[in-house]
Design a protein that fits this description.
Blueprint: H1 2-6, H2 8-28, H3 39-56, H4 73-78, H5 88-111, H6 119-127, H7 140-154, H8 158-169, H9 186-209, H10 216-220, E1 225-226, H11 230-239, E2 246-250, E3 253-257, H12 261-285, H13 293-307, H14 316-328, H15 336-355, H16 357-361, H17 365-394, E4 401-402, E5 408-409
Antiparallel strand pairs: 1-3, 2-3, 4-5
Length: 425
């Protein structure tokens, strides 16, 4: 067993190199029709580069309807400029690859600890290429890396876990959900205190260095129903029933415009609020925590907020793959079947974008079917994830068995004490 374990990192590294070389090849041939006719890389070459120029002059984009990101996104978009001798596009891709490699490394390291599994690292290494070259042309890999590190450090260094979650939340809000499952008591207090202090300090620095740091709030509030969201799937099918709406590019995405879109958007917000209430109810009612509970809760939370959102961009799947990978590093996770659904949804997502995005935009039967399958898988994953998380938190506790040497050992039928957090060393 030890020999097999020692050979896993080289095999993982070899597969990472091979799959990332393929992703780079796809990115280099982005102009091909099946790969989106250059649309995937255009966002970095034009939009991100434009924002880089604005940020370089000491200001966040003001009045730009496409700028909808918290102030922490600024340093991420400026980072490629620190790499000498490279174009902005090449440097951006290099940063994405570095974050990808770091994520794989920390997942592998976590999986090699006693009682852990390398399945999480393998899911990340093999799952990310299912999105083709999209992850290399968006900065969601960098954000996901912060969330992954936050979760993997939470148990032993809650202050560090809170700081990484705060840093991620200032880039894209969702990494704050990494702390939703922090064990009650000292871990929660230290993690959330660290997160608040880190966020306040970073905001103070960014506010001092850049003008208009909060202009993004005005743009974010105006977003409508993206065609790839759950609500967008409903409206896409409604077009075949005579609904007169159309798809239009606005706020950086293809959104539906027409009658009842405001109602659908309001329903999405209401569902998001309901999801948040469910998560709070779980946290109040849960009486059993395992070493995997913070991981499982983070995945459940992000799944719920993703499927109820007005926007489900293809790169959102990067978040879910990263969190599912963290769950699979623990042998106590309840989310293994959920991870499989996420992998399936990721594969379908890459067919929809960039492969057949024109069909999705026009709401053809093929496009609607793709969205129905992808979002159906995500909705099923979200519901199943919450049910499994809820059941694991309500399980009765039984005394642990004693392993040889007097150490406590939990068998598959054993339950830890409801007031004690079980951590894998």
């Amino acid at each position: 067993m030890s020999a097999f374990r020692n050979h896993r990192p080289p095999a993982l590294a070899a597969v990472w190199l091979a799959t990332r070389a393929l992703m780079l090849w796809l990115l280099a041939h982005d102009a091909l029709a099946p790969l989106g006719r250059g649309g995937v890389s255009r966002e970095v070459r034009l939009l991100y580069f434009h924002w880089y120029g604005v940020l370089s002059r000491g200001a966040f984009p003001e009045g730009d309807r496409l700028w909808q990101y918290p102030p922490g996104a600024g340093p991420v978009l400026l980072a490629p400029g620190l790499l000498p001798g490279l174009t902005y596009f090449t440097a951006f891709v290099a940063c994405a690859l570095a974050a990808d490699a770091a994520t794989a490394a920390v997942l592998a390291r976590a999986g090699l600890r006693p009682g852990r599994s390398t399945r999480g690292a393998w899911l990340w290494v093999l799952g990310l290429p299912l999105l083709l070259h999209v992850p290399l042309a968006r900065y969601d890999v960098q954000v996901t890396a912060l969330a992954v590190v936050s979760l993997l450090t939470l148990a032993h260094r809650p202050r560090a876990g809170g700081a990484f979650a705060a840093a991620g939340a200032l880039v894209k809000v969702w990494p704050a959900l990494a702390l939703i499952g922090a064990p009650r008591g000292r871990t929660t207090r230290e993690a959330w205190t660290s997160a608040v202090l880190t966020a306040a300090a970073l905001l103070a620095v960014l506010t001092a260095l850049f003008r208009h740091p909060f202009d993004f709030l005005r743009q974010q509030s105006g977003r409508g129903v993206q065609i790839e969201s759950l609500g967008g799937t409903v409206l896409g099918l409604a077009r075949h029933a005579g609904w007169p709406g159309t798809a239009r590019y606005q706020y950086g995405a293809m959104e539906f415009v027409g009658p009842y879109t405001g109602l659908v958007a309001a329903c999405s917000l209401a569902l998001t609020a309901a999801a948040f209430a469910l998560l709070l109810l779980w946290r109040v009612r849960a009486r059993r925590w395992t070493s995997a509970t913070p991981y499982d809760a983070a995945l459940t939370a992000v799944l719920l907020f993703t499927v109820t959102s007005r926007v489900i961009s293809p790169q959102y799947m990067v978040w879910l793959l990263g969190l599912a990978a963290v769950c699979l590093t623990s042998r106590h996770t309840t989310q293994r079947p959920v991870a499989l659904l996420i992998v399936a949804a990721t594969a379908v997502s890459s067919v929809a974008y960039p492969g057949m995005y024109g069909e999705v935009v026009r709401s053809t039967w093929t496009g609607c079917a793709l969205m129905l399958v992808r979002n159906g898988l995500l909705a099923t994953a979200a519901g199943w994830s919450f049910v499994r998380l809820w059941r694991s938190g309500r399980s009765r506790a039984v005394p642990p068995h004693r392993a040889p040497g007097g150490q406590e050992r939990h068998t598959p039928d054993s339950r830890p004490s409801p007031n004690k957090t079980v951590t894998a060393s």
